[in-house]
């Protein structure tokens, strides 16, 4: 009887080992295949944009459209920077403005949001709840409702046609403050009290203890704000009358306007679309691990 039981156990173990591949069972393999297929589907728009930017005019308008380019060319990128050759403002100026503004504004939003979230999370001063309630309420307003107040403020400050007008409207970011505050709430108060007992000042605690712990939230805020600022053309339309101070998204918007036909400059527009995608893709790939850590973070042990 004992030998029969051992044989049954050996057969069961062999079946289990046969059903596993590289330490995975069948259900895990099926899930991995399903996720891989979904990942490929999600990559299709990105693949199409990369291939579309390399298509000659003969392939840009064929029907049905091809995802993959058959005769790749860089002429679209040449056209993108040649199209403004006779203009006083080259395309490189718009691109420089966008890069500078996106970097400065992203850093400013991240720093200001962290400085605002820290006292709300760790200092229960009078009116803290009311202030946080105002921040929550401000999330309900659509961006269009803020255009007129922003224009009045920027005009009153006298910063029209300056980089300040590009950066300052983005600094007040309720979503970023909310995310940072919720993350800082998870930092143990005992850790901060121990630092105060050791003689650390508030700025030292904030800079050397709180911020390193909250780096996943900082990376998430940076990615979201960079994506928003990089593709924003509102400041160029509302606050800039000098073309030399406008950004690349504004240039992309006007690239194919006021033309006699819908074919001209489509190659340049395809190349410009790729230029708009690449920086946000690079930023996301650099900080993706921090974003995943933020999503999976459920508490600090």
Automatic annotation (TrEMBL):
InterPro entries: MetI-like, MetI-like_sf. Pfam families: BPD_transp_1 (PF00528). It is a multi-pass membrane protein. Residues 95-287 form the ABC transmembrane type-1 domain. It comes from the Bacteria. Keywords: Cell membrane, Membrane, Transmembrane, Transmembrane helix, Transport. Gene3D superfamilies: MetI-like. This is Carbohydrate ABC transporter permease. It comes from Paenibacillus chungangensis.
């Amino acid at each position: 009887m004992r030998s029969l039981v051992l044989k049954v156990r050996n057969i069961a173990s062999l079946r289990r080992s046969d059903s596993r591949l590289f330490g995975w069972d069948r259900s895990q393999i099926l899930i991995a295949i399903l996720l891989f297929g979904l990942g490929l589907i999600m990559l299709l728009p990105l693949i199409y944009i990369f291939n579309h930017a390399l298509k000659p005019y003969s392939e840009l308008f064929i029907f049905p459209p091809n995802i993959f380019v058959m005769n790749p060319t860089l002429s679209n990128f040449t056209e993108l920077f040649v199209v403004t050759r006779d203009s006083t403002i080259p395309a490189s100026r718009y691109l420089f403005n966008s890069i500078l503004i996106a970097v400065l504004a992203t850093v400013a939003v991240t720093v200001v949001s962290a400085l605002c979230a820290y006292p709300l999370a760790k200092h229960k001063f009078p009116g803290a709840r009311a202030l946080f309630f105002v921040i929550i309420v401000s999330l309900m307003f659509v961006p269009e409702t803020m255009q007129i107040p922003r224009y009045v403020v920027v005009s009153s400050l006298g910063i029209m046609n300056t980089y300040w007008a590009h950066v300052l409207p983005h600094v007040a970011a309720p979503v970023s403050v909310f995310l940072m505050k919720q993350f800082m709430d998870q930092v143990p108060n005992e850790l901060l009290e121990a630092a105060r007992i050791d003689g650390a000042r508030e700025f030292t605690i904030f800079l050397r203890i709180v911020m390193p712990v909250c780096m996943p939230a900082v990376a998430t805020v940076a990615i979201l704000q960079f994506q928003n600022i990089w593709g924003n053309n509102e400041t160029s339309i509302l606050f800039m009358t000098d073309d030399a101070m406008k950004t690349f998204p504004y240039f992309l918007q006007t690239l194919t306007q006021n033309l006699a036909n819908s074919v001209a400059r489509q190659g340049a527009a395809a190349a410009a679309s790729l230029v708009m995608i690449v920086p946000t893709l690079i930023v996301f790939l650099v900080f993706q691990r921090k974003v995943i850590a933020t999503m999976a973070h459920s508490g600090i042990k």
